[in-house]
Hints:
alpha+beta, Glutaredoxin, two-stranded antiparallel ribbon, 8 helices, 6 strands
Amino acid sequence: MSRRLRIDVFFDFICPWCLIGKRQLEQALEQLRLLRPDVEVELAWQGVQLLPHMPAQGEPFAAFYLNRLGSADAVRARQAQVQQAAAASGVAIDLSSIGTMPNTANAHRLLERCAELGSAGQRDALIERLFAAYFHHNEDIGCTETLLAIAESCGFDHAAVADCLCGDASPFVGASTRGVSSVPYFHFNRNRTVPGAQPAEVLLNAMCETLVHSEPEPQPS
């Protein structure tokens, strides 16, 4: 008999630690499949907008971080820390190539709509494409035209998703994200949590412990 494991991943597209955490999760899931091929995993991606007051057009990336961290030296130190952690996880990130810090409300609305319309594979492809757009291709994922083009590249019809994209920069509030203020954040079967971009081994251990505690008690003979 197969076992079920639901994993809720709370994330934002502009957070490099979320991309790192995604790669760590993928590694942990590969290991879980080898250890427990009987387990059926359900992934639920829960969008958290980290910067709900960001203007609809976004802000220049370099200016945003300079204002946030206070000095060019602090920005370089933070970026070096992130890029070192990313490289250790097999993620290539060049933060200096990013031009815009976007408003991610519509990106999350798009994912929410596409998750309703498409397959899990299409949803996963859209998430990967949105991360790549921001971290690798210097695309503005706050731009409606960019989002629609990305959705179409993942097999979604323009007319089916266009109406979910708002033009007023109204914040995105996910149905299941109340009480979650930092990302990435992982819920396993909605009762065990792991905060942060933890190593794959930590996530795998959490999965295995969750499965052990969800195993039915043996019945007396």
